[in-house]
Design a protein that fits this description.
five-stranded mixed β-sheet; 37% helix; flat; single chain; nine-stranded mixed β-sheet; 643 residues; Rossmann fold; Heat Shock Protein 90; Ribosomal Protein S5, domain 2; 4 domains; alpha+beta
């Protein structure tokens, strides 16, 4: 838990701590400005805003339990045992502070002194924005022995704040809301999506218990997230399908006045680094000052230790930071009173003093661990040395690739390029097999659509070094065709196509090929996914013909419905073709069903949760068989990875 210096000035939490910045009116007109999107991501963001308020109470030392329930009608209940929202009259607004919090934008205890000193919410808009975007909402505040309640609809107050019961010594807040279907594209909550974020919150705030329940359908679900070990258990969770090269998870924390640093890490035998950084529980996916301080410190410490322990000779050059971090899983979590967020998505921490603090704490604590545990330190240094040698070999291979293709005007011989030179108007289909590749080349729009056929399955980069990866002709062809390089030399501005479309068969083998390609992109060219450039095509499973009428269906369920509809119309003997692969379609069929922008269905590959995506790829593509078997059994019905 955070220290007294950070979280408490005193125990007071009343109307005087609620500061008003502006009104609520714009939210319904431009919801995207406040929650990013009205898609599924924005829908789930509503839950996070309410839960963040409860976590703020926990950070302040007043809340231990948070209970989230998905009701049968897809409404949400969030209950905590904090102090309860203040209900006394606000000195400036002359109405209950509860009503101010729920109906006025930028009203909350997250600004100035006396409210929350450390808060996960960026703008203090949470409760009021959720209210504005909900067709119905109610709040109950338990404090001073009474239960206070107010109800709303689409941001409008329906009832005054009323006393509806007594609660004795019990305190807390109970919020219920149902998202507005006029605002959101869909209003069905995903248990898995909520689970991922709530588990993460429990890891980041040791000791908090978060319960998630799903009351929908015949199979009720209930999960409890409670980690006394906090981020130590987070590292353990991330590494559960990996092989650590040293037994202990390195952990340390430091509290300096109004700043807190908490770090946990462990090296594995993997080829990639996985460092997740947070500021006030916000995932700083673009990094920032705290991450720079951490990386700088471990590079210096491991090099200093390696020389002191004679594992690096005097004539040897220093190990590069990338070599040292190979296989590292780390959680870097900081908490501070006035976070400054920068970057495209406002998830890059800009507070320069956090770099200095994280750097100094890491140098002291990590060096102490290595010196006190030489048997664990040795494999860490030896892995970095192996990575250094492999990187040198990869650099030579990369230089060969670059000289031979990447820096020349030549493109892969198999590539059928498009004539359009504007990347924003160009797309490339990565097609499984020469047969399908031939149909795709014949049926495509030659102006905007390029085709790159692949033979067989590509290399599983989860189990391969970069040196081995760059020796693969298939991967070299893709790198060259895309034009933006790979690894340290990657430059998204040189990308030749703004749609990279994976087009594989609609079967298990096709799904495997998709996963292999997504693993390559996620591990070595993540900017392609982050930029929204990667898509999966959706080829049909069936072609149904009755006379001159033709239908295509894309799932078994869709096929059953079509056949039932045709039977009702008296069309009892349709001609049915089940496609075993793309190669069975001629050029016209492939164009009409899968490639024509007017009729095709593309699934954009996104990563909402990097930590979860890392686990999925480790499970699917790593060495451990039991978790892979379990994952496949549970998710076999899904054709495309939901990252």
């Amino acid at each position: 838990m955070a220290s007294e210096d950070i979280t408490r000035k005193n125990g007071e939490y009343n109307a005087e701590q609620i500061q008003v910045l502006e009104g609520l009116e714009p939210v319904r007109k431009r919801p995207g400005m406040y929650i990013g999107t009205t898609s599924s991501r924005g829908l789930h963001h509503l839950v996070y805003e309410i839960v963040d308020n409860s976590v703020d109470e926990a950070l302040a030392g007043y809340c231990k339990n948070i209970h989230v329930v998905i009701k049968e009608d897809d409404s949400i209940e969030v209950t905590d045992d904090g102090r309860g929202m203040p209900v006394d009259e606000h000195p400036k607004m002359h109405k209950s502070a509860l009503e101010v919090i729920m109906t006025v934008l930028h009203a909350g205890g997250k600004f100035g002194e006396g409210g929350y000193k450390v808060s996960g919410g960026l703008h203090g808009v949470g409760a009021s924005v959720v209210n504005a975007l909900s067709e119905s909402m109610s709040v109950e505040s338990m404090r001073d022995g009474k239960i206070y309640r107010q109800e709303y609809s689409r941001g409008k107050v329906l009832t005054p704040v009323m006393v509806v019961g007594e609660c004795g010594r019990k305190t807390g807040t109970h919020v219920t809301f149902k998202p507005d279907p006029e605002i959101f594209d869909e209003t069905v909550f995903s248990f898995d999506t909520l689970e991922s974020r709530l588990r993460e919150m429990a890891f980041l705030n040791k000791g908090i218990k978060i319960i998630l329940e799903d009351e929908r359908g015949p199979k009720k679900k209930k999960e409890v997230y409670h980690y006394e070990g906090g981020i130590k258990e987070y590292v353990e969770f991330q590494n559960k399908n990996k092989t650590p090269i040293h037994p202990s998870i390195i952990y340390y924390e430091s509290i300096k006045k109004d700043k807190e640093v908490e770090i946990a890490m462990q090296w594995t035998d993997a080829y990639t680094e996985n460092i997740f950084s947070y500021a006030n529980n916000i995932n700083t996916v673009e990094g920032g000052a705290h991450l720079v301080g951490f990386k700088t410190a471990i590079t210096k410490v491991v090099n200093d230790y390696a020389r002191k322990a004679k594992l690096l000779k005097e004539k040897d050059p220093d190990l590069d930071g990338n070599d040292i971090r190979e296989g590292l899983t780390a959680i870097v979590s900081v908490k501070l009173t006035e976070p400054q967020f920068e970057g495209q998505t406002k998830t890059k921490l800009g507070n320069a003093d956090m770099r200095t603090l994280v750097d100094s704490v890491t140098k002291e604590e990590l060096m102490a661990f290595l010196e006190e545990n030489p048997a664990q330190a040795k494999p860490i240094v030896e892995k970095a040395l192996r990575a250094f040698r492999a990187r040198e070999a990869a650099r030579k291979a990369r230089d060969t690739v670059r000289k031979g293709a990447l820096e020349s005007s030549s493109l892969p011989g198999k590539l059928a390029d498009c004539s359009e030179k504007d990347p924003a108007l160009s797309e490339i289909f990565i097609v499984e097999g020469d047969s399908a590749g031939g149909s795709a080349k014949e049926g495509r729009d030659r102006k905007t659509q390029a085709i790159l056929p692949l033979r067989g399955k590509i290399l599983n980069v989860e189990k391969a070094s970069q040196h081995k990866m760059l020796a693969s002709d298939t991967i070299k062809d893709m790198i060259t065709a895309f034009g933006c390089g790979i690894g340290e030399k990657f430059d998204i501005n040189k990308l030749r196509y703004h749609k990279i479309i994976i087009m594989s068969d609609a079967d298990v083998d096709g799904a495997h090929i998709r996963t292999l390609m997504l693993t390559l992109f996620f591990r070595h060219m993540p900017q392609l996914i982050e930029g929204g450039y990667v898509y999966a095509a959706q080829p049909p499973l069936f072609r149904v013909r009755v006379g001159k009428d033709i239908w295509y269906t894309y799932t078994d369920k869709e096929q059953e419905k079509l056949l039932a509809d045709l039977a009702k119309q008296g069309k009892t003997k349709p001609e049915i073709q089940r496609y075993k692969g793309l190669g069975e379609m001629d050029a016209t069929q492939l164009w009409e069903t899968t490639m024509d922008p007017k009729h095709r269905t593309l699934i954009q590959i996104t990563i909402d949760d990097v930590a979860r995506a890392d686990q999925i790829f480790t499970t699917l593509m790593g060495d451990s068989v039991p978790p892979r078997r379990k994952f496949i059994e549970e998710n076999a019905q899904y054709a495309v990875l939901d990252l």
